[in-house]
Design goal:
Blueprint: E1 4-6, E2 18-20, H1 29-48, H2 56-68, H3 77-94, H4 104-107, H5 111-136, H6 142-155, H7 161-190, E3 196-199, E4 207-211, H8 215-225, E5 231-235, H9 245-248, E6 253-256, H10 264-267, E7 275-277, E8 293-296, E9 305-307, H11 314-323, E10 340-343, H12 347-351, H13 354-362, E11 368-374, H14 383-391, E12 396-400, E13 415-416, E14 419-420, E15 422-424, H15 431-445, E16 454-459, H16 463-474, E17 480-483, H17 492-502, E18 505-506, H18 510-518
Parallel strand pairs: 4-5, 4-7, 5-6, 7-8, 8-9, 11-12, 11-16, 12-15, 16-17, 17-18
Antiparallel strand pairs: 1-2, 3-10, 13-14
């Protein structure tokens, strides 16, 4: 087995890169190398398809290919190779004789070029995930799709730092547009989210756990399980599904199972129910629940049952009935011992109270806002985010989103005149909600976003977090606190540029960072 090189996630070995036969995420080197080859095929496809030659098939392959290479999506060499073959065939049909790009050239480039190209590539991968979810609901934006081809072509070209830096920022701008498109797709399909309390106790009887982000898959499963005596529970980033009115109509959407994605190997131990993975969140599957794992969409794992494009969830339903669920109600808690969590505070819900929030700020009853969220992970140091939330003063509001919220979303930190101190804005793509709220507050106070009493305390793990970070930079957002470590793919020179231009700060200790922020 050939050795691999991968440094795209926060937990990469020694914060330099995974090498050898297996990555920290559990991905084998042959699969990782095949994903590099797939990326090379996508660059070939981008070279073969001009702006006027895009088609539904090439667009779908571009999105699926980029999404497949995100951490914790695909661990299956066979399905990666099959997708590479499909991409190669599409490119050959467009421009025969073109060769796939050797991605090794990016990893071996001078460190600053490697750093900037990595930011572009990983940002494109994250954006593609959001575009794919919108695609599933029938929402496509030509400008977004054109940029995927442009960005992939640039990765295969000889470019200097001065040429690559604008593309890095453009990637962030396109991701904002993409998150806006997905927000529109989700809200027009399922309604504007409303604040909802979600129980963590699993009721007795058959049930299915749904993990990931794809609300379209959730809707299809809810419809297929209606009146079958099977309850549905969200897991990890699927939690915000409870806030959408058209999904809430299904009374068998009961609650949330467990906590963040990285706890699944012990939380799923001997679970008497199947688990459906719809997007990234999958970890190497343990024997104690391997016969109950199902995948769909671009998610794939060797020997697991895959639900194809027909989205017939009959095997999942049959497994739920076979397993039978818990014989009695099964209490579970959040990381901090809470028995319920709240979700549904998207931009519409928060902005309905904008006038009240502004008044509370002017009255001195709200001193500061913190956005504490992002990707969670298993690496040491992430307890920082729980401790930070606990130590925020009682006259501050915490906005949270993505799976990083599981570090704090079951805490009971009280209210400020009826407004909960913790507001869960949703999935990672709902960073769009946080941005929209920040812009609205800035307009209300007649100031710039960077002048607001708002601090961003972000955690990152994978490539969607990279895309969101690039969006914040593209918007000119400064003074972001980032952790638990800085990306291994950011070179010292690029880091120095980000620090000078945007004042990005690595997290230190909670007390030190709070003192810097609040004085």
């Amino acid at each position: 087995m050939e050795e691999m090189f991968c440094f795209q996630c926060q937990q990469t070995a020694h914060n330099t890169g995974c090498e050898g036969h297996t990555g920290v995420c559990g991905k084998k080197s042959d699969t990782a190398n095949l994903q590099d080859e797939l990326t090379g095929e996508l660059i070939r496809l981008a070279r073969a398809v001009t702006e006027n030659e895009r088609s539904r098939s090439s667009d779908e392959l571009m999105l699926k290919g980029l999404f497949t290479t995100i951490t914790n999506v695909n661990f299956n060499s066979d399905t990666v190779k099959k997708l590479s073959d499909e991409i190669r065939e599409e490119a050959e049909n467009r421009k025969p004789g073109k060769e796939a790009y050797n991605v090794q050239k990016i990893w071996e480039a001078p460190e600053d070029i490697r750093s900037l190209k990595s930011l572009i590539l990983f940002g494109l991968r994250g954006t593609a995930a959001y575009a794919y979810h919108a695609w599933a609901l029938g929402y496509v934006d030509a400008e977004i799709m054109n940029f995927f081809y442009k960005g992939m072509r640039i990765l295969g070209e000889e470019k200097g730092m001065e040429e690559l830096l604008p593309v890095v920022i453009e990637t962030g701008k396109i991701n904002l547009r993409c998150m806006e498109l997905l927000d529109k797709a989700n809200t027009e399909s399922y309604g504007d989210p409303i604040p909802t309390e979600v129980p963590l106790t699993i009721e007795k009887g058959p049930f299915i756990v749904v993990s990931g982000h794809d609300l379209h898959d959730m809707k299809l499963l809810l419809e297929q399980t209606k009146d079958k005596g099977i309850n549905i529970y969200t897991h990890s980033e699927m939690l915000p599904a409870h806030g959408y009115p058209k999904l809430k109509e299904y009374t068998h959407l009961k609650g949330n199972f467990g906590t963040a994605w990285q706890s699944q190997q012990f939380e799923f131990h001997n679970i008497p129910a199947p688990i459906l993975f719809t997007t990234n969140c999958l970890m190497p599957v343990r024997q104690s629940y391997a016969d109950r794992v199902f995948t769909t969409s671009v998610v794939s794992y060797p020997e697991m049952v895959h639900i194809g494009a027909d989205k017939d969830f009959t095997p999942v339903i049959a497994k739920a009935l076979e397993c039978g669920g818990y014989p009695e109600d099964h209490p579970m808690t959040g990381i901090n011992g809470g028995t319920t969590v709240m979700t549904g505070f998207a931009h519409n819900a928060v902005l309905e109270n904008a006038g009240k929030i502004v008044d509370l700020v002017k009255q001195g009853k709200i001193r500061h806002f913190f956005l504490i969220g992002g990707c969670d992970g298993a690496a040491p140091g992430r307890s920082y985010y729980t401790e930070f939330a606990k130590k925020t003063p009682m006259d501050t509001i915490i906005l949270t989103l993505a799976c990083g919220k599981y570090r704090l979303n079951d805490l009971r930190l009280g209210e400020i005149e009826g407004i909960p101190r913790i507001l869960d804005m949703g999935q990672c793509n709902d960073a769009y909600s946080a941005i929209k709220v920040a812009i609205a507050l800035a307009e209300a106070f007649g100031c710039e976003v960077n002048e607001l009493p708002l601090s961003m305390i972000l955690s990152w793990y994978e490539q969607k977090a990279v895309a969101i970070l690039l969006t914040l930079l593209a918007l000119g957002i400064k003074n972001i606190y980032l952790g638990p470590t800085l990306p291994a793919f950011v070179s010292p020179n690029v880091l120095n540029y980000l620090v000078q231009e945007y004042q990005i700060t690595p997290i230190s200790t909670v007390d030190e960072d709070l003192k810097k922020i609040l004085g």
